[in-house]
Every structure is written in structure tokens, then in C-alpha cells.
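Cast an eye over this sequence plus C-alpha cells and walk me through the fold:

***
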Amino acid sequence: MRKAILPTAALALLASTFKQAEPAAAPKQTIAQLQTAINDLHILGNDFWIYNDLPGAIAQAKATNKPIFVTFRCVPCKNCAGFDAEVAKGSEGIKKLAQEKFVSLRQVEMKGVDLSQFQFDYDLNWAAMFINADGTVYARYGTQSIDGPDAYNSIASLENTMQRVLELHDNYEKVKASLAAKRGAALPEDAGERTMERYDAMPADATTSLQRDIMEGKPSELDAQLGAVVRMAAESGVDVPVCDFIYRCLLPQERARVETRAT
């Protein structure tokens, strides 16, 4: 099991170490083209969500003095689809908070995202983070567990988290000093061993959403995960032969799938 999952584990560790770089030679897409390419139906009719534009969300948060509610989701993946739909357009309680009290950002790619700031499981199951416009992290919610990608998520607990974040934000000047370190952190010394222990505990036939999407012929997060690590490693002088080999082998068919969906 450890040998089979090693590239994914290496990816998780490396992605947490480097800052995300912009993809080389990736075609620029409009929001509408991206939504069509990944078939993101959950966002339709909910114009208050900022789409895939973290700098834009930060600028709006500074202008409005609201905290940022950013959700991360690999849309083509079926995991967490139901919960994602509830958050994006189903729950009236979440919608009211997201629209009125937060600057809400729907992030469907990891391109351009500083991974030292947003630390979670980069398999891109549903995850959310709440941050101040200055980059301070108020809270993190979701991502997968050993019990499944959606085991700990619920609308009630998410709404409770949002209310607690608003309390922190309203008292930010008083609690700012205690949150000063909440801006991303270096990995602990035992991060590698703990990561491998997690993968060792998974079933022998476990797969990642990236692998499942590729096997099913769907556009995947290949560039946002493996491609980003390859580019960041090159910039930092780190040798990542396994990630580089897998990425370059799969890249041609990934580009072909994306181009087909876009047309």
C-alpha cells in the first residue's frame, strides 16, 4: 500500500512546502468557459460567489471589512457533491450568511493559491477556510478523514463555524495578537511519518479523486496538483523525478480532455 500511494504522499508534502506557481503555457479561460469545462452546475444562479479569484476576494474584503469564506472543491469529482450543492445553493442559512456577512469565494483550482497559507488535504475534497483580508486564518473546516471525504461535514456544524468566525472578526483588534501566527506554518518534523501512517491505514484498493477522474476520462486536477509541484520544485532546486515523470506522461491526454470539454 505504501509503495502504491507514495507519489500522492510525496505530492501532499511537497505542496505544503512550496508556494504555488502559475501554470506554464496554460490557456486562459473566462469564468463561463471554466464553469462549462468542469460542468460546475452548483454555482448557477448564485452570483454573490466570487469565482476562482482569490485576489479579487481579498480586495473586496478590504473594502467591505468582511471576513473571507473560501471553499475549495474539485468539481469533476463526485465525492462531496451533495454537501457542495447544499453549501453553494441549497441551505438558506448558509446562503444568507455567505451573501450578507462574508466575502464568499468559490475556488475550483489551486493555480495561484499560496499553499503555505491554505494548508489542508490537497486531494481537493470539499474544504473551507475563513480568513481576514490581511491573511490571518480564523478557521478551517472540512477536508477528508479516514472515515471518508464527507464524514465530518454537516450544514449545522458549518453554520456554527461561520457564526464563531463572525464573532472573531467583530473582535479582531482584541484577538489579533493571539492569531498572529495563523498565517501558515512550516511542517512539523514528523509530518512525513504521520502522512505515511494515514495512507497505510487506507484500504489496499483506495484511490485519489485525481486517479479516478483520469481513469474515467474526465478533466482532472493534474496540473493543479502534480504540475504545480513540478514547477515549484524546479524553481526551488528540488528533484522530484516521480512527480515529474507521472505529470509529463499524463499531461497530453489531460490537455486533450480539457480542450474537448471547452469546445
